[in-house]
Design goal:
Beta-galactosidase, Chain A, domain 5; 8% helix; eight-stranded antiparallel beta sheet; binds 6-O-phosphono-beta-D-glucopyranose; 3 helices
Length: 301
């Protein structure tokens, strides 16, 4: 029996989950329930799409995204783990860690009483990941697809020494146009501005994007709300176990260089990432489990 058939036999649930192979070796868990539609790639446990029924998509996926083994997918919810950004000591290691480009296994699927669907994925270690991250640990992603999307990244330290973890749910949110939106919730917060020479600043008002933005807001716990005048809706991002929020839009020049953005697509998205980055990296003690949660829901504006 093929891997796909075996997966479907074990995890498919009528009116909830179906596994499909969309390209060579790329298997997607397709979720369709009474509340929403979502696609999650087994590579990277990468939530690629999320659309509540009757709504525009909430999560943005680049129409030029590549679904290929070992390549990260442009859009959706890439998992940055076990470090965020460049590796602290070895610049040859992949930016944002390896979790988003390695296979994960589907461990569990459940139809919940309220009509939502629950899925749990576990990162599969290999010799390369162990060489890059020699700390005994496990990473699991729990996803609940309902009216809202809930994503929970669970890291357990299974060894006998503490380790320092950097992480983020690098979520791409869909907006009508970058000129129509304001991000609220970070007013008064300090941020590290990574555009040009790194500087430290304080956010005064809501965030409006009119050029490249690459900022790590530190010591933040509040919800963020993306107000979108074009779609007359707001996307609320609630988070737990997270002290950093990253806001990113590559703007024209950088986007054009990337190959999976094109000249205009950056106007349709903004990344608001919930995580623990830079000075907010977390220490996970032996035997301890750390949980990073983000929840995405839509409100009328
Ligand atoms: C953001 C970083 O989180 O991710 C940016 O702050 C980076 O510096 C961006 O360019 C995209 O990263 P990648 O590796 O997915 O192209």
């Amino acid at each position: 029996m093929s891997v796909l058939n075996l997966l479907n036999q074990k995890h498919a649930i009528e009116n909830h989950v179906q596994l499909r192979e969309i390209a060579d070796g790329m298997i997607i868990a397709e979720v369709a329930n009474q509340h929403a539609l979502a696609n999650i790639a087994l590579q990277g446990a990468h939530v690629a799409t999320f659309q509540p029924r009757g709504e525009e998509p909430v999560i943005w996926l680049s129409p030029l995204a590549k679904f290929a083994p070992g390549k990260s997918i442009r859009g959706g919810v890439p998992i940055c783990w076990p470090w965020f950004g460049p590796h602290q000591t070895d610049s040859k290691l992949p930016g944002h860690g390896f979790a988003r480009t390695v296979p994960w296994e589907l461990l569990d699927t459940k139809a919940l009483e309220d009509g939502s669907t629950f899925l749990r994925f576990g990162l599969i270690e290999n010799d390369t990941t162990r060489a890059q991250w020699p700390h005994p640990s496990t990473a699991q992603l729990e996803v609940t697809v309902g009216k809202a999307l809930r994503v929970e990244l669970v890291t357990a330290n299974t060894g006998s020494a503490p380790f320092e973890l950097g992480e983020a749910l690098h979520t791409y949110l869909q907006i009508s146009d970058v000129g129509n939106m304001t991000i609220r919730g970070l007013e008064g917060c300090e941020y590290i501005d990574k555009v040009g020479a790194t500087t430290r600043r304080t956010q005064q008002d809501g965030i409006v994007i009119e050029s490249e933005v690459d900022r790590v807001y530190v010591n933040t716990a509040a919800d963020c709300v993306i107000e979108d005048k074009g779609l007359k809706r707001a996307i609320r991002i609630h988070k737990e176990g997270s002290r950093s929020t990253v806001v990113w839009n590559p703007w024209t020049e950088k986007a054009e260089k990337m190959g999976d953005f094109g000249p205009k697509l950056h106007r349709d998205m903004v990344c608001v990432e919930s995580g623990n980055a830079m000075e907010n990296a977390v220490t996970v003690a032996p035997g301890e489990t750390h949980r990073l949660v983000a929840m995405y829901s839509v409100e009328k504006l």
